[in-house]
Input
Amino acid sequence: MKNSPFRRLAQRAFSEGLIAPSLLSADFASLKDEIHDVENAGVEWLHLDVMDGHFVPNLTFGPPVVQSLRKATKSFLDCHLMVSRPEEWIVPFREAGADLITIHQESTPHLYRNLEL
Output
């Protein structure tokens, strides 16, 4: 873990700052091209706002989208789970290729169990 890509990116983020554009603002019809555009501009960290239509009113990405993105990019994929029952989604997103998964503490009564997944 000492020399992991995440550790290096995280250290740089805290020391220099780091831009992690949200894919929510991308044109989904041209998602691969838009990702390559931001990567060509120097971006190495992409943020995915995952919404389930319950915890928040919108509906966005699921594990199949992350799995497809993983094939299209080497960028760090940060999946922000704005979902009810995140314990049902952590493993599927990790297996799909997410590099970092963040959850809301108020989305689950079992935060500690979620951190162990």
About this structure: Strands lie at 45-51, 76-82, 100-103. The two ends are 18 Å apart (CA to CA). The chain is about 40% helix and 15% strand.
